[in-house]
Amino acid sequence: MIASIGRFAAANRRWVITAAVLFTLLAGGWGTGVFGAITGGAGFDDPASPSVKADQVLAGPLGRQADDVVVMYRSADRPVTDPSLAGPIQAAVAAVPRTDLERVDTYWSTGGDPDFLSKDGHATYVALQFRSSDDQERVKALQAVRDSFEVPGTDVRFGGVTAMTEQVNGLTGKGIGRAELLSVPLLLVLLVLIFRSAVAASIPLAVGAVVALGSFAVLRVLTLVVPVSSSVINVITILGLGLAIDYALFMVNRFREELAAGASVDAAVERTSATAGRTVAFSGLAVAISFTGLTLFPSRFLSSMGYAGVSVVAFAVIASLTLLPALLRVAGHRINSWRVPMPWDRRGAALRPESHGRWYHAAKVVMRRPLLTTLAAVALLVGLGAPFLGVNWARPGDWVLPSSADARVVTQQFGTDFRQDPTRTVTAVVTLPSPASGQTGPLGEYAARLNSVPGVRDATVTNTHENLARITAYYSMDPMSREARTMVDGLRAQTPPPAATTRFTGMPASRVDIVDMIGSRAPWMALFVAVVSSLVLFLAFGSVTIPLKSVLLNLLSLSAAFGAIKLIFQDGYLHDLLGFTPIGAIDANFPVLIVAIAFGLAMDYEVLLLSRIKESYDRTGDPDESIALGLQRTGKLITSAALLLVVVVCGFLASSVAFLQMIGVGLVIAIVVDATLVRAVLVPATMKLLGHRAWWAPAPLTRIRRRRGSR
């Protein structure tokens, strides 16, 4: 069927290319409107968690008691109580439109509360609470009044959760353009070096551009069906570009091989679609399955990442199986035109037997001592992953921003210059069996018990409504620290009034709920991805041994990435180079995202390598020779594909948001380890150990596969 698609696309190449151009122009216009179509916010929380349930109650008559934004005023030369500053600050605050504001508190409106003044008297803050309980609506409300707070002669900064969300949104939006600006010229240079032909190099880049721009349209259509997190666009569009270039690289390389073997242009296109196209289809299916695992999580961030990932991967596969054959047919023998000579090219290298190739000899060396090689490589990967055992989990917060961002600066100033941080509050929502007005004593005693938890202070009943009560408390520690987790556990362990139930919310409670949600669903995701990926590999190769081996090796390559991320982002190694401030924790969303993306990419390379090994094995029946020939035919290609993908992914490192940097570093390490140590060492070694058993399957399964039409 895939060969038929390629044959049809080649025969109707003008229509296919015209449609692709028109679609790309449409995507560049209408599709980029996805930035305005995403209104659901980041969506990291589990909608069914206790903290979210508490927030839903607080959105009703009971009301919230939270500072969404703190506007920090600082003067270098005068106390803020000096009339020359106090007057303008009060006037600016008084002129702020109150349409979307529930509460505005200042040093002066609170009767001179000393907590609103810094220790040196040169700084004060204005605490804002918005009416809306939706984070993106609060961001819009902040943007509408931001300029009203400007006061000449003061340094004005905006902190708090809503300000942090606004600043993260702004930086992630800039990240896409910066990543593409950095990666595209380098990709073109690398493609020319790989193919030695400007024509051949331009085809993967053209397909990548169509997929990258088309991804915006795909995502915008997706927003019409499901809520999409505002954090999805960066990851998905960059990944779409990388996958498209990878797939195009596979197919262009195979097309050139077929032409070199004497095939006509039409036959080469059809053969390329039947072989490399089939590999692309199975590879895309494996990557899509990995992303499907993310839909098992209830948080909007992970589930929408799953939906978006599947959609964009499917689009990349469709573009590769239709547009690429059309472009290859147009290029024909000109695919090798505009050749770029390289000083290290050697005459006759292309005519050497494959048995004289470097990758062939590397495979033979590995297969001389397969057991020792396997044990050594496994020990190395396990050792690299060992630091991950000491991980401390966090949720996204202002720590993902650069140290110069307003929200980070305000948090730092509260920690050093003020008596307390007003944003560090935790709220208890108490549901009583009878009206709260008659439960004053038990509620007061409960607040006292909460106040006895280490790190908690000033726990007070701040509002009641019917049978509901709100208790607000302050805490002192970093909300992402291990101590904050202990505090939340301590609060939840306190006995509420008789027959009452309590739910806690606030950054520490939200962080605990997110970590628990991910921890409970992650094993199911891993099981789903492993089982369904194994099924895909069985359908591709007719073996039950190959899928098990592949899943285990892919998990080993991921362990190295996890260990490195812990050392870099939690322990702080290389933080100066990457430009972030470590907080002693790692975002809990990170491992499942890396599993979804890197596991799929690892399957990408696995399918490519095993396809060529199986071709040779079916022809010769010699497992050792097939392994060596398979690696010889794909080693350079896999290395090149990994290099190109690393260049694309390195765009994340150019971001100033630590969360995106974390994804970039994790993917770069996983890709490099998988394309080198795993594909070039572990795969030949383990395949040698398995021998003919690598392609074994029970007879009933083989019959079922044949009935389904798989070869």
UniProtKB/TrEMBL annotation:
Q: Is Transmembrane helix tagged as a keyword?
A: yes
What is the protein's major site of localization? membrane
Q: Give the record's membrane topology.
A: Multi-pass membrane protein
Kindly give the SUPFAM superfamilies that the UniProt entry links to this protein.
Multidrug efflux transporter AcrB transmembrane domain
**PROSITE patterns in the cross-refs:** SSD (PS50156)
Q: Which InterPro entries match?
A: MMPL_dom, Mycobact_MmpL, SSD
Compartments, as annotated in UniProt = Cell membrane
What cellular component GO annotations does this protein have?
A: plasma membrane
Q: Does the keyword Transmembrane apply?
A: yes
Q: Identify one Pfam family in the record.
A: MMPL
Write out the transmembrane intervals: 181-199, 206-226, 232-250, 280-299, 305-328, 371-394, 524-544, 551-569, 589-610, 637-657, 663-683
Record key words, sorted: Cell membrane, Membrane, Transmembrane, Transmembrane helix
Source taxon at top rank: Bacteria
Residue ranges of domain SSD in the record = 198-330
Q: Which PANTHER family match?
A: MEMBRANE PROTEIN MJ1562-RELATED (PTHR33406), MEMBRANE PROTEIN SCO6666-RELATED (PTHR33406:SF11)
Give the family per the record: Belongs to the resistance-nodulation-cell division (RND) (TC 2.A.6) family. MmpL subfamily.
> What is this protein's record name?
RND superfamily putative drug exporter
Say which species the protein is native to: Kitasatospora gansuensis
